[in-house]
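Input/output pair, single chain:
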Amino acid sequence: MSQTKTLAADIIRHVGGKDNVKSVFHCATRLRFKLKDEQKANPEVLKNHDGVITVVQSGGQFQVVIGNNVPYVYQDVVEAGGFQTSSNDDTEKTGVFNRLIDVIAGIFTPILGPMAGSGLLKGLLAILVALGLLTQDMGTYIVLNAAADALFYFLPVILGHSAAKKFGGNPYIGMIIGGALVYPAIVAMQGAGESLTFLTVPVVLMSYASSVIPIILAAYVSSKIETFFNKHTHEAVRNFTTPMMALLIVVPLTFLAIGPVATYASQGLAGGYSFLYELSPVVAIAFIGAFWQVLVMFGLHWGLVPIIINNLAVVGMDTIVVGVLMATFGQVGATLAITLKARDPKTKGLGTSSTIAGVFGITEPAIYGLTLPRKKPFVFGMVGGAAGGVVGGMLGTAAYAMGGLGVFSIPVMIPATGLDMTFYGALIGLVVATLVSFGITFAFHKEVETGEQTTAEVAPAVSEHVGFPVSAPVKGEAVSLETVRDEVFSSGAMGKGLAIMPTEGVVYAPFDGEVVTVFQSKHAIGLRSHSGVEVLIHVGLDTVQLGGKHFETFVQAGQRVTEGEVLVKFDLEAIAQAGYDTITPVIVTNTGNYLDVLPTHVGIVEPNHGVLRVLA
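Output:
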C-alpha cells in the first residue's frame, strides 16, 4: 500500500470511520470534513501522525491540514471511503444562518454601489435646498431628484433581477415581476383607495415602491417554478412557455398572498427595530458603533443590510448607518495614534494611507494591517465607536437614504427640514469617536515596549544579494505571517513566508519556474522555481468556499512561467463584500529543505519587488 493510501486509511479511521463522514472536500492545504459527530474523531492522534501538519476544528468543519500533497491524499480518501468527489461543500457548508447571509450578500452586493451613489445625490440635493440654492418646485431639482430617487422607487424591479439571478432563475422574469408590483395603473388604484379582484378573489392593494422582502420571496418562488417547467417542457417551446407560466402563476400569487404577507413582515421588522431604538437610542447606536467592525470581519453585517434598506423604505429613516459611521471613525482614531507613535517609517506610511482610506470608509487596511494585529488598539477603536454612537443617539441622528461609506455617508443624514442638531450629531459623533479612540490608544498602546511586533520588526536585515529571491506575487501591503487569522498559516505550520493585503486583484509569478498546482476553486496556486523552491500563494482565507466564484485563472499545472506573468485574476471587492478576509499568505512550503526563509521587505510592495529570501 502506498504512503498516501495508508495515510488516507488512517485519517478515515481517526475521523470516526466513513459512516461518520457527511462530506469531504479539499482546499489548497487541507481536507475539510463535515462529520456527523466530532466527538468520535481523534484530533490529537491525527496531529501526531506523519503526513499530517495539524488539525483545525472550525466553522463546523473538521480540517486535517496536509500541505502540498492534499490533492493526492484527498483522492485516496475519497476512494477508500467511497465518498463523492467535490471541490466544495456547497450543500451544507455553513448551516442555515450562513446560507441566509450568503443569499442576502448575493442579492444586495450588486446594487450597493448604485444605491450609495443615488443616496449621495439625494444628500447633495438636501444640502442645496438647505443652502437656498434650489427649491423643490424648480425643474433642476425635479430632474435631479428623479435621478436620485429612481432606484429607490423602482427597487422591486432592480432587486427582481439580482434576486432571481441569485436563486438561479431568469433575471428578466424577476424584473418583470418587480415591474408588475409598481405598475402605474395598479399604483393609481392603490393611491385612490379603489378595490381590485383577481378571479373574484379580493386583492389587498399595498404600496410596493421601495419594498424589499416581497420581490425577494416572489423571485424565489419564480425560480422554483421555472425549474419545474424547464424540466417538463420540450426544449422547442420552453424559452417562451416557461416565462409565461412563471408570470401567470407568480404575479397573481404575489398580489394575493406573497406581497401582503411580506409587507406585513417588513412592517413588523421595521417596527421591531423602531421599538428597540425607542427603548434606548443611545444603546442601540452605541452597540452598532462598537461591534460593526466585528460583524464585518465575520461577514455577519450582511444580515443588517436588508434591515437598513427596509427601515428607509418603511419608516423613511435609519439609524444603523449612524453606528456604522461611528465604528469607522473609531478605527480611524486608533490607526492615527499608532501612526504618530510608530518609529518605523514603513509603519508610518501604512498608518498614513490606512487613516486616509478609513476617512473614506475603507477600514480593512487599518484593521488587518495595524489595529487587529496589535489587539488592544482594535478594542480601543470599538470603544471610540461606541462613544460616537452615544452622541448620535442622544442627538437623534439618522440617515434618510442609503449613502456611501465614511464621510460620504454624512450628506444623507440631512433631514428634509434642513440642517439641525440631528445632522450636527453626525459631525460631533464622528469627532468624538475619533478623539476617544485616538486618546486611549495614544495613552495606553506601546508600539515597541509591549513586545508586540511593529511592521518594521518583521523584516530582519538581509542582504538583497543573499539566497534565492521571491518577488511579491500581488500588489499591496506586505505584513508578518503572524497577523494572518488562521493558525495553520500564522503558526508557520505550512512553512515560512509572509502575507500581503492586496490592493489589486491580480496574482503574478514571483519567479521563473513551473506551475505545480492550480486548485479547482482557483483561490490558490502552487509554483516551483527552477532551483526547487516551492511557493504556495493562497488568496484570502476560507475562499475555497466560493468554489471559484470571483476568480479567473490564466495558467495550468505543468506550464512554465516567467516572473511577472499573470497567473490569476480575482475580484477583490466582491470577495471582501462576500465577507471573506482577502489577506494573501505567500508560503515557502518546502522551508525544511533550506537554512531559513526571511522576509526582506514589508509595507507597500509592487509585483517584481523582492519580499522573501530563501537561504540555502
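Confidence is low (pLDDT under 50) at residues 87-94, 449-465. The first helix runs from residue 3 to 14.
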